[in-house]
Amino acid sequence: MANITKIFENNKKWIQEKLEIDADYFTKLSQGQAPEFLYIGCSDSRVTAEDLMGVKPGEVFIHRNIANLVNNVDLNVMSVLNYAVRHLKVKHVVVCGHYNCGGIKAAMKPEDMGLLNPWLRNIRDVYRLHRDELNAIANEEDRYNRLVELNVQEQCVNLIKTAAVQKAYKEWGLTVHGWVFDIHTGNLIDLKIDFPKILEGIMEIYKIN
Ligand code: CO
């Protein structure tokens, strides 16, 4: 288990390791960023974005919150999205959920979670949208796992509803991806969501660009 002293020692070691490979590593790093990916994932300490994707500093712009939500009125996620798309001009936006997500489980408990209530209600709304499919799954764990996937799908749809994504899709073919990290095996799963199919007959409502 890391403690504060250990963290600063680790940092010194990390600097040495980087400089041994490339003496100009930090000089180059300080010159700017041009990531091609925006990753929106869960804050869960076990789902470490860079580690599971095997990417280096500078390669992925990252936003994490409880249960990887893309909420229209959350200034934080909307600012990250707009900066990544309009300024950094990323090519891909990823929403990555994970099985055994505590946020998803908490949302489904009939319990007053205080300040978390409005945040978690977004997940209850996902459940409501897909209640027929979810209620048909008898096994509780399977049902939670499917809700994790459907939540990723709905957050991707939320991305597609934004002007930033719609404009970037037209201008440089920005793509949205829905992934799930399987915490039991370490596998990163591409849900291969068929957006044209999901948004058929609906997209016209959300078109703003
Ligand atoms: Co989670």
Any key phrases for this structure?
alpha/beta, 2 domains, Beta-carbonic Anhydrase, Chain A, globular, binds cobalt (II) ion, 209 residues
Condensed summary:
The chain is α/β, with parallel strands linked by helices and 209 residues long. The chain contains eleven helices and five strands; from the N terminus they run ααβαβαβαααααββαα. It folds into two domains: 1-31, no CATH class; 34-206, Carbonic anhydrase (Beta-carbonic Anhydrase, Chain A), CATH 3.40.1050.
Walkthrough of the structure:
The chain has 209 residues and is α/β, with parallel strands linked by helices. The chain folds into 2 domains: 1-31, no CATH class; 34-206, Carbonic anhydrase (Beta-carbonic Anhydrase, Chain A). Helices cover 50% and strands 14% of the residues. It has 11 helices and 5 strands. It has helices spanning 4-21, 25-29, 49-53, 75-87, 102-107, 117-129, 131-135, 140-160, 163-172, 195-198, 203-206; strands spanning 37-42, 60-65, 92-98, 175-181, 188-190. The protein has a 5-stranded mixed sheet with strand order 2-1-3-4-5. Helix 3 (49-53) links the parallel strand 1 and strand 2.
Helix content: 40-55%
Please give the alpha-carbon distance between the first and last residues: 49 Å
Main sheet properties: 5 strands, mixed
N to C succession of SSEs: HHEHEHEHHHHHEEHH
The rough form would be described as: globular
List segments where confidence is low: pLDDT < 50 over at least 5 consecutive residues: none
Strand percentage lies at: 5-15%
CATH class label of the largest domain: Alpha Beta
Report the average pLDDT across residues.
Answer: 96
CATH H level of the largest domain: which superfamily? Carbonic anhydrase
> Helix/strand/pairing class, anyone?
alpha/beta
State the domain count: 2
List bound small molecules. cobalt (II) ion
Radius of gyration: 19 Å
- Secondary structure tally: strands: 5
